[in-house]
Each structure stands twice: as structure tokens, then as C-alpha cells.
Fold this protein.
Amino acid sequence: MQYAENILGTIGNTPMVKLNKLTAELPCLVLAKYETFNPGNSVKDRMAVQMIEDAEADGRLKPGGTIIEGTSGNTGMGLALAAIVKGYKMICVLSDKQSKEKMDILRAVGSEVHVCPTDVAPDDPRSYYSTSARLAKEIPNSWYVNQYDNLSNTKAHYESTGPEIWEQTDGKVTHFVVGVGTGGTISGVGKYLKEQNPNVKIWGVDTYGSVFKKYHETGEFDEKEIYPYVTEGIGEDILPKNVNFDIIDGFTKVTDKDAAVYTQRLSKEEGMFLGNSAGAAIKGLLQLKEHFSKDDVVVVLFHDHGSRYVGKMYNDDWMRKMGYIE
Ligand code: PMP
């Protein structure tokens, strides 16, 4: 008999899939690390379990405890699955720009959901950073995960996602392209791949309205770079500890419109029904094309599933209202 001990045993070992139509203009092989095959439909299952197990191991999380996290949904989903299997209570704190589908999904897996305004500074008491920290103080036997600064996040990708990409490409990967939010994915995978081959180039995809690209290029945290944007899952108005700027070779910024349009194109032209950050990632990859040559193997990571975006990027009324399509 072949079975996993519980649902957490099905995390990881996701497929690698070749892109064909959208990348036809490129000279090289482009492969997608297809993370929607995880049980929570996103890459975040990997780091959710790692963060919980590291917190159990050093006593930050105790039996019967409450897990609290500020999350755009995918980390919450991974944490919620692990909380069910391991017997913890789960509270997710979201900003109000996240899709309703994400909130409904979190409630469906037993999580309590708090919604906070997006357009307030991180240190405003109403922000989802502050609200998460306050709940953690108020609720006894609770643990605030803080995926931004919790380095178990990067560790999960260093120990699982990175080695899988190296093995699936027989060590031939030359470029890795990925959207950056907390930075866990790019930093963990990037560190692992550069340790195997220092010539592998690591590219971050950022949004307009986020600080990463400018900070990487100038070392300046420029508040003028911060303004509201639509793209979900990537870009930040803070510098998370999980972003290891030293292992990143460069950032490219993708507009909200392009990210939304390319999310639809991935689905309609490649049969890849994916989330909004996948659209940003593939458009970012195309913007980087001058860096790729014939023998390169470019891996892009697609974080999450399209079902969470049916009311937005997959809804033509919404796309028209936003001015993204005619
Ligand atoms: N895409 C989606 C859909 C996400 O939820 C996240 C996590 N915020 C990212 C991309 C960015 O990944 P990371 O946090 O590892 O940088």
C-alpha cells in the first residue's frame, strides 16, 4: 500500500512543466515549478509546516496553542492544514484587498479570519502587521508566526524547493525567476542553487508600489516607491528579514495590468490555471529575455492556483472595470 500518514505528507515533490506558447520568442528552455500541486494549492504549504515544526521544537508553540498570522491567504491555508492535523487553533489576519475567495477558503479550513484596511502604514494600529501582533499579546498560549522575519520560511525552500529544482533539471538550471513577497522562496531556492553552481542567476519579480527593486539597486529605502497596487502576493512596503538581497542578481517590475493580462494568458494559452503572481512572474521573465541565451534552462516558480482569482483576473467584467481589457 502507498499512502501518506496525513495530508501534510503530500507536500512538495511538485512537477516541473515546460512552457511552450508564451515563451516561443525566447531562445532557451523555460520550465515552470508548478506549486499548485501542494495540498493547499500553493508553495506556502512548505514553509507553513517548517515554521510550525521549528516553533514546536524550540517551545514557541505549545500543545493546544493558537497560531496567529498576518497572511494574504496562502500561508494561512498551509498553516490551517497543519493546525488541523496537529491540533492547534488558527487565526488569520488579512488586508481588505485580498480576494473574497481567499477569505472563504480560510474559513472553510477552520480558520478564524480578521480583515484589516490595506492603505494604512505598517505601524498604524489598524494594519494587519499591528493587528496580528496585538492579538498575539491578548490571546494566551498563542504564537505569532511572522512569515516575513521568521527564517524557517527561507529554510523550507533551501531544504525542499531548491533541491527539487536542482534535481529535476539535472543540475542544468541557469536562471531562476520568481515573484518576491516575504522573500522566503527566492532566498531559500537562490541560496541552494548558488551553492550548487555560483553562476546560476537569481531574478526577483517585483510590483510597482513596492520597495524591493530600488532598495536592491541603491540601498535606499525610498518611501516614494510605496503606493497601493492590485497585484496579489508579491511586493512589499517593508524589508522582510527573509529577503536575502545578496543572493539576488536583479529585480524587474511588472505592472498590475500586465500581471492580470498574463495571468489570463497562462490559463488560455498554456492551460495553466494559476494565481495572479504567476502572471507577474511570466511577464517578468519575458522582460528579462535579453539575459537568456540558447543553452540556458530558465526555471520560473508559479506560487498558487487560479481558483482564488475567479472573481478578479479571470472575470472579464472586473478586467474591463480595471481598464485592463477593452
Ligand atoms: N505569490 C503568492 C500568490 C504568494 O502568496 C506569495 C507569498 N506572499 C508570493 C507569491 C511570494 O512568495 P514569498 O513570500 O516566498 O516571497
